[in-house]
Amino acid sequence: MQISEHLDLTFAALADPTRRAILARLATGEATVTELAKPFAMSQPAISRHLKVLERAGLVSMDVDAQRRPRKLEPKRLAEAVDWIERYRELFEQSYRRLDTLLDELQAKPSAQKTAR
Question: Most buried of 3, 9, 26, 55, CB within 10 angstroms?
Answer without folding.
Answer: 26
